[in-house]
Amino acid sequence: ESTSAAKSFFDTNDIAPGYDFRSELEGNIEQSVLLVLQTDNYASRAWCRREVLWAKSKGCPIVVINAVQNSEERSFPYLGNTPTMRIDREQRNWCGRSVDLALREMLRHLWFRANLADLTEIGLVPDGLDASPCIPEVLTLLMRPQDQQKSGLIYPDPPLGSEEQALLAQVAPYITFTTPTSCASRNLLGLNTTGFADMLIGLAISDSPDLLQYGMSQAHLQSGMLELARFLLAGGACLAHGGDLRPDGFTNQLLELVWTYNSIRDDEDLSLSADQRTGLAANRLANYVAWPIHLNYSTAILAQHHLNGVFKFVPPPPDLALSEDQKADFVPPDSPEHRYWWFRSLTAMREKMAKEIQARILLGGQVRGYAGGMPGLVEEALLALRQSQPIFLLGGMGGCAKVIIDAIEGRSPKELTEEYQCEGEKYKDYADFLDYIKKTPNAVKVDYQAMVDELAQFGINSLNNGLSEAENRQLFVTPHVPVMVSLVLKGLALCSRADSA
To answer: Is residue 260 within 8 Å of residue 226, measured between CB atoms?
Structure first.
């Protein structure tokens, strides 16, 4: 019985005396993953450089193991655009880690071609595109055969940033570049464009407490966040979000995506000044911040991050009747009264955003342990439903989005009960807050049963997002980011087309 064990090729051992060295190398590279051990002297070796160029000309998988210890006199520029792993040769198991990386890259190549064949067979990707499991770069375009110079090229998601696309267009102006998800979205719609350019779309995406129950990690949620934002920006949409400036937060990542996927019109746009970056971000991203949180952001901090015009500061609502002195001081939610101020201010922020956006996307989300008065995604969902705003519920990663789906489908999720929200010593502060508003005249109350009843009354047919009931139910459960992205893009484009009809 045959086995599927991988074979290895090492020129010193595997080229027999008398055989042509070049033809043996070329022939084996074409069937291999090229594992480059980049040492201090690697770039000075002619045969090493040739191996890389041969592998790139054949579209072979390449991984780079960076083992430079001191320095290189010159760096070989064509090692770029490949998976790279830094190692210390004194560490144990670096060889095993290197082989793992090479095997993963080979599997990624094989999966890309197999998945592309499936998408082509069902008509989501057109036939005749030149498939490249490697991200296109100037070198590989220059090496393309003459008969492929004007054909389309499809490469793995995500789409390249506009600065790279502009450069590739100078080298190969007749080649069209696309990715499977971009292609599938257009074909699902029967449109040449995504159709939602200039829509302001609200993203309500945050940590999901039950990812592990779905066999996922924070990395999966992060991938879903970024891919949704990436494709929306690539399609010309503007994004609305309510977040802060923590170093690893979604707001900073959104800013990077905004600068990456802006449409580049000429070479001068490739290096934007600080003022241009600020203006660009303000045109594509609106980040809403409630009082008193926005008191933490000085003008200097916003200018440093190119955020002038991006952050929309929302004042506390009039019903709090705060004095000017009270409004000027940051107040943490450290008492029932102060938490009520946060609750009402967060509601005011969400109401302002709901009036200005054209659609809402919900993914993940905390169900308790928040600083306000109720789960934020629940309030955002209700605001969207009350305004007949398109809303997309992505429940495949659990969290508050899944709780909302349960309520909309007529179930009674335990998470939307006062007992669950107050259960345990950890949530005693929240229980004290609820007691406070029950005893305070004219305070806005938090009624979980009313939330559940209202969501159930709206039901799945009130999502108003352009998708069929079957497609929404698929969006409710799919853990696959490409499926989420394709369905959201389809729904947004259909909503946009209906509005313009």
So the answer is: no
